[in-house]
Amino acid sequence: MSTHAKRERLLLADLLEASGPDAPTLCEGWTARDLAAHVVVRERRADAAGGILIKQLAQRLERVQAEFAEKPYGELIQLIRTGPPRFSPFSLKQIDEASNAVEFYVHTEDVRRAQPDWTPRELDPVFADVLWSRLERMARVIGRKSPVGLVLRRPDGRTAVAHKGTPVVTVTGEPAELLMFAFGRQDAARVEKEGEKDAIGKLHEAKQLGI
Fold first, then answer.
1. Residue ranges of domains in the chain, CATH in brackets
2. How far does Cα 41 stand from its chain's mean position?
3. Is the peptide bond before 167 cis (omega within 30 degrees of 0)?
């Protein structure tokens, strides 16, 4: 059984702890404390976490997340480290790995890349391929709101079509960088864009794609 999600969970918890509750993140309007509260609510409060995707539940999610953000910061960190309770779907290793390897990687980078002196992590090839595999499967969902045709391409030439259409913008980068780009962290993703200038501009203005 792969343990990428478990490793990324612990890395995220360690980084949040070291950064402190008031550290900035790439999530607009969120400090490290807010991000920690989000992670805990997502795993432990299914009654509210639905608001991440369902607009009708968004206010409940906001309220519950604010309540968790008021908890002692160290308690939030410990809840992240120990993982979800038994009744949570995330307690199943298969679901944890499928759902959280990407989630925790992106949020770890949300904290890391909010610092002015950040440098890219060197990922082992196996984990890079895991991120790419997840990105390939999610590409059409991620790109469904793209205002232009969108192709994601690795340096070795492997591609994933995120949105069919013209004009086409091809975004090239390592899997982790493409993932950050696709999850709306365009300004912090080290990628190269090829295409018509106007099309690239429209894609940049879109910021968040389909997630």
1. 4-112 (no CATH), 125-206 (3.30.1050.20)
2. 16
3. yes
